[in-house]
Amino acid sequence: MVLLNSSKELEKDGVEVEAQTTYARDLEEREGDAVFGEVEAGGHDYTNLTWWRGAAVLTKIQLGMGVLGIPQVFSTVGMVPGIIMLLVIALMTSWSSYVIGKFKVRHPEVGSIGDAAYILWGPIGREVLGGVYWLYMVCSAGSGMLSAAIAFNAITLHGACTVVFVVVSMIIAAILASIQTLSRVSILGYIGLVSILSAILTVTIAVAVQGRPDGAPPASVPWAPEIKAFGSPTFAEAANCLGTLVFAYGAVPASFQLVAELKRPQDFIKTASVAQSVITSLYLTIGVVLYVYAGDHIASPALGTAGPMMKRICYGLGLPALLVSATLFSHFSAKYLFVRALRGSRHLTANSATHWLVWGSSVLASVVIAFLIAEGVPFFDSLISLVGSLFATVMCLQFMGCMWFYDHWQDRHTDKTLFYRALVFWNAFIIVIGSFITVAGSYGAVESIIESLASGDTKSFGCADNSNSV
């Protein structure tokens, strides 16, 4: 009995020693992180995000950007071109995510797209691309605030000035975005996913049950949706659709910051695989079903497709998701400023006054500028299309092709396989096609801005109900 007890104690001690050794090794790895440096006692450990929580954040931030605009793409270009375009963009952005994961493992010091640009092109590349990324995240946060204001207007039947609703959205985003680590923010990703999925499924089921969308002829008039296999869009309209699809996957550059906070950067491939699979499946399903039942009578965003009452219900269900989108984009933009300002300093992770001052200032600057852009630009939807076409495509496609060439171009002297040559062609193709989408999408966005300016029916800081136009 004594020997048995001693054996159990030794086994227990061995397990405890092994666990302590594993913990010490993991802690040492986190303290020596190439981006966040050492973690002092009582400091903030940023590198503790699990891959599945990262998948929830990445899925939510993607869905919040694009899912409500996908049906309109099918309506514009037709079912067949719309599906083909969506799948091609999904494949290219999935490859971009894969390249980001591999690049982070090869270059542990990369904590943002600006850091990757520094490796490729030096200090100028870091400042230019990093600045563009921050602007893109801020504009996206502003778009989320406006979307939340649309939801507030729809739910309350324009119960207050629209500016008030945008301010409320900004305050909520600022409070939630101030949560410092992605591991803690990730819970919002789950909430946002449940919210947006319930809203989308509700509007889809409502349109299918009603048999006709809002805006279709009255029930006394025979009507059936006109489903076009191939549409007849103008070049500007088709280009805008390309920009919309890239924008639907436009959170790819945020993956740099997400992978930097993972416990194991090697797990990012799993994170990206889950996120890309989920959002592509949803984009296809929701886009096809809504287009089949609504035809050309699809609202944009799509939550208003099933009529006034269902519009209020769907926006009520989707409001948390829209606020989470504004929060996540605000967090990513603030985190970029924060790390850029304090990197290499103990204040980056220390629980110091400087740490909190810089973090608070970063959050405040990001949400206030997002608010000013959202309210100050009367044609904000067109502006975000332009920013997305000019910058999102470069950060989602061309830059990742350049990253792959940076790491693998020297292999051309030793690797003569067909597979390597195919990868060279594929990454060159991504750079070329991405450049075409940048030019074409920008042209379409500029055309839209010109039309908005000519109409003169939009006003900065206006109180009008912005839910009636969607």
UniProtKB/TrEMBL annotation:
Gene Ontology MF terms: L-amino acid transmembrane transporter activity
Keywords: Membrane, Transmembrane, Transmembrane helix
Residue ranges constituting the Amino acid transporter transmembrane domain according to the UniProt record: 48-443
Pfam families xrefs: Aa_trans (PF01490)
Topology within the bilayer: Multi-pass membrane protein
Cellular localisation: Membrane
Transmembrane segments: 73-95, 148-175, 187-209, 229-252, 273-293, 313-332, 353-374, 386-406, 418-443
Keyword tRNA-binding: no
InterPro entries: AA_transpt_TM
GO CC terms: membrane
Tagged with keyword Membrane: yes
Name this protein carries in UniProt: Putative amino acid transporter
UniProt family annotation: Belongs to the amino acid/polyamine transporter 2 family.
Main location per the UniProt record: membrane
